[in-house]
Fold this protein.
Amino acid sequence: MVQEVERINRSVTQLLEFAKPVAVDKKEVEIREMISHSLKLMAHDLEKKSIAVHTDIQSVRSTCYTDPDRMNQILLNLYMNSLAAMAEGGRLTVTVKDLGPEQDLEIQVTDDGCGMDEQVLSEIFDPYFTTRPDGTGLGLSIVHRLVETLGGDIRVESGKGQGTTFLSGCSLRQRKIPMRHKILVVEDDPAHARMLKTLISDWGYEVMLADDGDTGVEQVNPGG
């Protein structure tokens, strides 16, 4: 019962993070310090599973212009995803390299874990999709949204039993991302649904409620 309550609390917290407008505060950030800081926050969890960590900073830049808090949030979510996929004694590699003529950055987070098949890969960034019993299905959705808000893109390369690499392109240019105006909440508990609708509505969003996935899809894409 306690674990279920904790799971619901975590799910609600991540849903609110996913739904609310993302505030971005870009500044000059030391690349090595950004990577080092994020890994330090995961040090205890990595040590518990005896995960070896390797960093490979290939970029000719020493700094980049981004939001350090949002980048930290992105990296931590990717590390946690990798950690869950690896057995004890695994290896986590973080690579930073330059891309293209304008030298946009790409950050790669690679693990030697269980990997993913094509079906999982096709849904990996979908809200509420998870392969873990204790997962909320929102962590990677939040990552996807944050990367886009920062003007970048993210993709994943993986194979069953072959490990996984998340590749996040970090644009150094400004790009406006349209704000979302509608949020779909899929929740089969009416009390939870009403609570979430009230909270999200306070941020100015129109909230659509559905008690199952099929109903939700029909609301988003009627007759589709």
